[in-house]
Amino acid sequence: MRSTRTRTAWIRRPGNALLAVTFGFLGWWVVGLSAAIFLLAAVLMGIELAHRRRILVPRGFGAWLLFLAWVVCGVIVLNVDAPGAVPGDSSSRYMTWAYRLAWYVAATVAMLYVGNLRRELSLLRVSRIMSWMFIATAVGGWLGVLVPHLEFTSLLEHVLPGGLLQSDFVTFLVHPQVVQLYAGAATDTARPSAPFPYSNIWGLNFACFLPFFVHAWMTRDAGWRRPVAPVVLALALVPAIQSLNRGLWVALIASAVVVVVRSVLAGRIKLLVVSVGGAALLAAVLAGTHFADLIIHRLDNPTSNDTRTSLGVATVESVVEGSPIVGFGTTRDVQGTFTSIAGGATTECPQCSPPALGTQGHLWLVVFSQGLVGAGLYLSFYLRALWRTRRILSSEVTVGVVAIGAHLTTMFVYDSIGMSMVAVGVGMAYLWREEVRAAPDAVEVTLGAYLGLVRRHWVVVTVCVALGLGAAYGVQSRQGRASGATVSLFVPADPPALVDRGLGTSMDTEGAYAHSAEVLAAMSAEVGHPVTTDEVFVSADPNSRILNLRFVGPGAPRTRSALNAAADVVISQRNARLEAAVATVRNELSSRAAARTAAYLAVDRVYTLVDVLRPAGSSIQQTALRQQRTAARAQITDIEMHLSRLDATEVSPAVVVTPPRPTRHRDGWIIGLTGGGMLGLLVGLGLAYYRDALGARARRSDELARRVQAPVLWSGDPRRQGSELSAAVRGYGAATFVAASPSPDARELARTLGRQSHSATGTVGPHGVPADHAGTATIIVVDGRTRIRVADTAAKRLRMGGHSVAGVLVDSRRPEGPLLDRIQAIGTGRSTRSER
To answer: Which parts pass through the membrane (predicted)?
Structure first.
């Protein structure tokens, strides 16, 4: 029992839940829990956060909360069809959606955990905890170098049901292997991937956890770690090169540039010299090894560029066309391949099927899953944090910038769901804590403040959501009750007689004919309005001769009639096209037969004439003529054989194998209503925020203190006068009182306090300050009806002029003796007993 309590107490110590994941990650990988262990640790960290009285959040956290809301609403659109993707429902999408949502939430918990436990967890200890993850990545890379054929069944695989292991997604998560084969070189190269499923994921984690290792093992407080760190980095370089990860190489170069530039700006010129020397030494070492050839060969053979480009373009096009606001919730399989609508994986070519839409890069995942709006929220959260901390040159900020920069640099090519998201979340906590340390007087926002925003303005938010839903309903209603259906045709292969003559058609050609003007005209006649090619989705079953035409029309009867008409036209056009091709081949063969016959007769006449006359050398001439006649006769025979085959060939017409069965098309309604509601939510929250920020009155002291970033003192309620204002002003000497409100009472209060404190005369006017009092403690005077934005603007102008804003005095009644004594005590550095 005591041992159990000891273990429970150990795991509840600040930081130990995170340490249990990073220090033992290789062990969790062997067990098969590496893809889920941090999710369990995040639950423990979340419970610890929930026990705190207030949960602080970084600036701009609202954008991240909105992004999480976009991820959650993605469950609504999981089973809608995406343009360019295989249509149909799939229950596995719920699993992948939930898995990604869990990682987003876990990364959020890690960020808030490190950001809130400031007294319990120093950033140096956090770096030491995170550095074990880099070491685990490097050790796993060396496993791929030394034992590339190592692959085994994890303990979790032994206990999971066999049916569950049939899922490629589950196998991807729980089956350990140490390398990923790369077939782009002359000989297959083993790319280290342990303890992760893919080499690219390994490279991303390498880049994201590297700054924490450098911070923990190479700074002055590293102790015994400092002399060991260069050895670890040198050894880690080997699998980094062997992995052939161009994205990793770019991220490492970008990280080095960021570190050098920030160090130079901070005045640490020595690091620039060390970096240049280290780069030169590294180049010299690589030049003398086979790694140089490996790098050059990898750069000269970008085997995946075309696929990534095509997939990225197809992803964006699908989202823009189908669901630009909320996306499709999760990834979708591509219809066909990028070269054929009927392409797909086979036993001979298992890699012929392209990756799913929304993969091959975290940016494309966010764009496809959460739409363009969700992607904007995601990027804005990180970019705004980087921009706010650009002038803070501490090493902790550099760690956060490099970790986040590694993610942003590689998000075009690497998927980031997993432990790399934890590194990025902790990196955000580094920026957040250093931003607070640089401005200790700034009022921080709590998670409850966002909830309070919604609670205070729930009417506005609800109305905006209702308006968004109403607008989407109106748009969809104008389109009528649409019905969707698919007609499938079996298109037999063309006769060999045509294929041999280059007149055969592929499934891509058949698909192009299905978009012909005749087909669209026949469909338009049935539905009563022009039908465009964008409205007719043409696809084919992989590696088959099944052609599918999908159409969403105004009602079931018209949709069925339109597809039947399209099928009839496609069949009749194909029959006419094949008949014309057969006639063309027959005419060509007949013409060639006539020409060959005429040539044969001409040669035969000459041969007969030579045989009768027998001139000198006739034997040689007869031999040549005999050969020509034989060749001509063989050609005539070959042509006659082709004509016989052609006459015997029966052209099989295309037939309908699955007639259209219209069902009510709900995809448009689902996407439209979801997008309208989420846009309404976004607008409603924006109005609520600006109503608070721009329209709130100074009587809301918490919001006033947050915006002005200074404590608030009330003149009319002694219970609301804390010692914060005194502590803020004390040490400045005499205080200057500035009226930021046009109210006569506020102006008079500023004059009275300034005159009685013997510091300065209260300035008349909204923002004026005596020039001879720059550098003194300045107190802004407003009344309770003043807008917070007015006080905020005054504070910003005062600070730009070199003044220190020590607090805000809200005039709720005319000043009396005790109040003046307190204010005077602030200006002279004295304090009353109540303030102590």
So the answer is: 20-44, 56-77, 97-117, 129-150, 201-217, 224-241, 247-265, 272-292, 363-387, 399-432, 457-475, 669-690
Percent helix / strand / coil, the chain, rounded to 5: 65, 10, 30
Residues found in the chain? 836
Distance CA 84, CA 299 (A): 31
SS3 of residue 547 by DSSP: strand
Give whichever of 269-278, 741-750, 814-823 has the largest mean pLDDT. Answer: 741-750
- Which of 284, 54, 92 lies closest to 171 in space, CA to CA? 92
Whether the Cβ atoms of residue 190 and residue 242 lie closer than 8 Å to each other: yes
Of the listed ranges 516-530, 650-664, 726-740, the least confidently predicted one is 726-740
Strand partners, 783: 811
- What's the CA angle centered on 641, arms 638 and 645, to 5 degrees? 140
Global confidence as pTM:
0.78
Residues 540 and 339: their CA atoms lie apart, in Å, by 13
**Residue 657, Cβ density class (10 Å: 0-12 exposed, 13-18 middle, ≥19 buried):** exposed
**β-bridge partners, 656:** 489
In order of 84, 211, 515, the CA distances from 124 in angstroms are 48, 12, 63
Whole-number Å distance between alpha carbons of 670 and 673:
5
Higher pLDDT, 27 or 295: 27
**Which tens digit of pLDDT belongs to each residue from 809-827?**
887 654 343 444 444 444 4
* Residue 170: predicted pLDDT: 77
Find out whether 18 and 41 touch, Cβ atoms under 8 Å.
yes
Per-residue burial over 723-732, b = 16 or more CB atoms within 10 Å of its CB, e = otherwise: ebbbebbbeb
330: nearest Cα among 132, 128, 104:
104
Of residues 31 and 11, more confidently modeled: 31
Cβ–Cβ < 8 Å for 86, 332:
yes
Amino acid at 483: S
Q: How far apart are CA 806 and CA 779, in angstroms?
A: 6
Nearest to 190 by CA among 247, 246, 249, 244: 244
Are 721 and 808 a contacting pair, CB within 8 Å?
no
Beta strands in 449-512 (DSSP E): 482-490
Is residue 638 packed enough to be buried (19+ CB in 10 Å), middle (13-18) or exposed (0-12)? middle
